[in-house]
Hints:
Number of helices: 8
Order of helices and strands: HEHHEHHHHEHEEEE
Distance between the termini: 13 Å
Strand content: 15-25%
CATH class: Alpha Beta
CATH topology: Rossmann fold
Helix content: 40-55%
Structural class: alpha/beta
Shape: globular
Number of strands: 7
Amino acid sequence: MGRIDQLILRYQRHLEMPLRPNLPLSQRVWFLVYPPDEERRIIGRIPEFEMATDGVGLHWKHISLAGTFAHWMDTYDPEEKEQCLCNPDIVENYAESGFRDFLRDKILKEMNSIKDAQKATTVFALSGLMELFDFIHVSTVIEALDNGFPGVLALFFPGEREGNTYRFLGARTGWNYLAVPILSEG
């Protein structure tokens, strides 16, 4: 069985456990961890995760972050954008708060497109996390969402996990997180 098939199977098994909406958001985050070289295959198979979610009576909302950095940069006037892109340090400084807030607002807008009665039983699935690399930490985006965020936040996470430490794309220094790991292997 391939790694993606294993990840889907483990995701299906995890869905059988009851949701616990009273937990803080940090404990309602699911990291679907897979090797970065599987990113394109994962994106193509996201509908299978949606079908598994629907199959247990939960709701699904896929939120792709692909292209969000370019969309965020387009919010700046052309002169300021050019200055930022010419100096990587400036982009990193802007990204810490500006890009974080842009991502948070995008996620919240998608979350608010769901009926209130369904939010607590919705899996909000974030893909395209590679868009964040070199600009902002995944944990920073999660922390920008408050505990009032409903349902489950499932992240398609290209990287690895050792204990409670996650390494984004296998390159960034890991961080400890209370998220639930769903692994493609191991």
